């Protein structure tokens, strides 16, 4: 292997590591229900929340959505009996599986409640 190939291989390995470590916060598995309104696209869809973190969540839905990444939305969801309403943006679309949402605006009190919920979910996971 020459130096260019070695550098290329090293770059590829480094990029793969960076991509896999891209997530800022650990996701916690959960069961919940979500409703997403995207006014700019005229969409309203519902689904199940499969995991959540301090910065976002993944909503399972079979709906075939023609959305653009970063579309702003109003996200309302319930997990463990706690109700949340936040502004979020579409982070990733997995056709036939669901949508990853990133919280964009969250009030201080709501953020504290969200952190408490994530801690509760984390403790439940540790007990398993």
Explain what this protein looks like in three dimensions.
This protein is an alpha+beta fold. The chain has a single domain (25-127), classed as predicted glycosyltransferase like domains (Thrombin, subunit H), CATH 2.40.10.220. The chain is built from two helices and six strands, in the order H-E-E-E-E-E-E-H. The protein has helices spanning 3-20, 108-127; strands at 28-38, 43-52, 56-60, 72-79, 82-94, 98-105. A six-stranded antiparallel beta barrel has the order 1-2-3-6-5-4. The protein is globular, with a radius of gyration of 18 Å. It starts with a helix and ends with a helix. The model is unreliable at 1-21 (pLDDT under 50).
Derived from helix and strand composition plus strand pairing, the structural class reads: alpha+beta
Strand order, sheet with most strands: 1-2-3-6-5-4
How confident overall, as mean pLDDT?
83
CATH class label: Mainly Beta
The H-level CATH homologous superfamily, spelled out, is predicted glycosyltransferase like domains
Assign the CATH architecture. Beta Barrel
The strand count comes to 6
Task: Give me the number of helical elements.
Answer: 2
Reported for the largest beta sheet, the result is: 6 strands, antiparallel, barrel
CATH topology: Thrombin, subunit H
Q: Please mark out the parts with pLDDT under 50 across 5 or more consecutive residues, or reply none.
A: 1-21
Q: End-to-end span in angstroms? A: 47 Å
Radius of gyration: 18 Å
Q: Helix-strand pattern, N to C?
A: HEEEEEEH
| Total number of domains | 1
Strand content range? 35-45%
Helix content: 25-40%
Shape: globular
